[in-house]
């Protein structure tokens, strides 16, 4: 009889180690994908060297490459840094020291794009069905697009007229208002979800994906209507955690594409997106005189300074200031002399306006 021979166990792949570490700490699946993406790019940037062979200097070189060569935003550069720090601290058991010499991406300070109530109505009128309902919830409750897609039946409280947002940004729960205008459509939507669930059960399926380890803690929860998504996907798919066939929520590209088409059809010149509904929600509540602390809670902002940015877009035009030119009365001001107006009209060629500048030597 041959003696027992023990072979050394092969170390798991680095990507599997990162994935296990993220799931033990209950990071979202989307964060898991993003972290793996940046770790992979970090390794490939350094010619496939193992991270154990690298340290602060290599991390600084990669972050500088992102800012200088790829010209990423400040938030994207920070996202890559967080992924690399997680790799070293939580997977490799090493603390990265002070990272010096990094060219930091410039943090842009842009005001949010906000639609007027009329523009919101114009966009909503060009949506229908579930896309219309999702857009109404993003505007009427201030939901982020993923918060809307992750809504479950149990999160809609018709008795208290509120929506419970689970595991929002920062891993926090919050409540926000349930627009009365969408209650009939929401009830019809839940009945449609019930029919989809019954069809899945008849086919031998009927489960939805659950957060973290709730499917082990509550084995029957995945089949209960309360845990089903309000906006389930059109087809069943393999759950990345359990590897079982389940029903996930709708992909965000569906509503983003629909809103983009509606904005174009409405003739808006603003670069409005799904997130613009949330910006408009906050701005219109402030304009209606609601307390900024209440709006902060509805939006789920940790710092009120984040909410304060909407005070800068409340005014008409630039901060609500009227131009002194508009204060001149009578014949002392003429916008365009009649002769200049005729010249401009005569020189119009296609989409190009060929007119002499009104002030010679003026700055562009």
How are the elements arranged and paired?
Elements: H1 14-24, H2 29-45, H3 56-68, H4 74-91, H5 117-124, H6 129-141, H7 145-149, E1 156-157, E2 162-165, E3 174-177, H8 183-202, H9 214-217, E4 237-238, E5 245-246, H10 252-265, H11 274-287, H12 292-299, H13 304-308, H14 338-346, E6 348-349, E7 352-353
Antiparallel strand pairs: 1-2, 2-3, 4-5, 6-7
Runs in which pLDDT lies below 50 for 5 or more consecutive residues are 338-364
Overall radius of gyration: 27 Å
What is the helix/strand order? HHHHHHHEEEHHEEHHHHHEE
Please give the number of β-strands: 7
How far the N terminus sits from the C terminus, by CA atoms, comes to 93 Å
Side by side, the strands of the main sheet go: 1-2-3
The helix fraction, in percent, is 40-55%
Oligomer: single chain
Helix vs. strand class = mainly alpha
Percentage of β-strand residues: under 5%
* CATH hierarchy, class of the largest domain: Mainly Alpha
CATH architecture of the largest domain: Orthogonal Bundle
Instruction: Enter the CATH topology name of the largest domain.
Output: hpI Integrase, Chain A
Explain this structure to me?
The chain has a 3-stranded antiparallel β-sheet with strand order 1-2-3. The model is unreliable at 338-364 (pLDDT under 50). 44% of the residues lie in helices and 5% in strands. The chain folds into 2 domains: 14-91, DNA polymerase, domain 1 (Orthogonal Bundle); 111-317, Orthogonal Bundle (hpI Integrase, Chain A), CATH 1.10.443.10. The chain has 364 residues and is mainly α. The protein has helices at residues 14-24, 29-45, 56-68, 74-91, 117-124, 129-141, 145-149, 183-202, 214-217, 252-265, 274-287, 292-299, 304-308, 338-346; strands at residues 156-157, 162-165, 174-177, 237-238, 245-246, 348-349, 352-353. A hairpin with an 8-residue loop joins strand 2 (162-165) and strand 3 (174-177).
